[in-house]
Amino acid sequence: VQLVESGGGSVQAGESVKLSCVASGSFSSITVMGWYRQTPGKQRELVAELLRDGNSLYGDFGKDRFAISKDNAKNTVYLQISSLRPEDTADYYCHMVVSAGQGAYGEYWGQGTRVTVSS
Fold first, then answer.
1. How far is CA 35 from CA 43, 62, 105, 107, in A?
2. What are phi and psi of 104, to 5 degrees?
3. Residue 115, exposed/middle/buried by CB under 10 A (0-12, 13-18, 19+)?
4. How far is it, in rounded angstroms, from Cα 67 to Cα 62?
5. Is the per-residue pLDDT at 100 higher than 90?
6. Cβ proximity of 113 and 99 under 8 Å
7. What local confidence, expressed as pLDDT, does residue 101 receive?
8. pLDDT number for residue 74
9. Among candidates 28, 33, 48, which has minimal Cα distance to 3?
10. What is the pairing mode between strands 56-58 and 66-71?
11. pLDDT band at 119, cuts 50/70/90?
12. Fewer Cβ in 10 A, N or C end of the chain?
């Protein structure tokens, strides 16, 4: 299974960005789709995740500026970040847990996409 992210780049404070992550490979279903972020010297931390039961989890950043969504038909998860701040500068990683069938699951990470916010 491979996760490929896109949508990062350099933006100005106050702007928005939409990240995408598409999963490819052999799996029967995706049970968890989400995003984490990491800055130098810090641990990777949860931004938001969507669970198969319809629930969502948000990290300490809250929901007000971070919107997660998905397209099941495209095996894609999105993260829209609004009103970007310089402190949002980080590497954003896609995270998925997929089912391979017969009770087997796998956890996968994307390679990361960098968002740089300048003031």
1. 14, 13, 19, 13
2. -95, 135
3. buried
4. 10
5. no
6. no
7. 82
8. 96
9. 33
10. unpaired
11. very high
12. C
* Tokens 């995270």 -> residue: 95
User: What confidence category does residue 106 fall into, taking pLDDT thresholds of 50, 70 and 90?
Assistant: very high
Structure tokens at 35: 């995003």
54 is written with which tokens?
């319809």
User: What six digits make up the tokens of 100?
Assistant: 């391979």
Residue with tokens 């992210």: 5
User: What's the one-letter identity of residue 119?
Assistant: S
Write the CB contacts of 89 (distance below 8 Å, at least 6 apart in sequence).
39, 115, 116, 117
Residue 117 token pair: 């916010």
The one-letter amino acid code at 69 reads: S
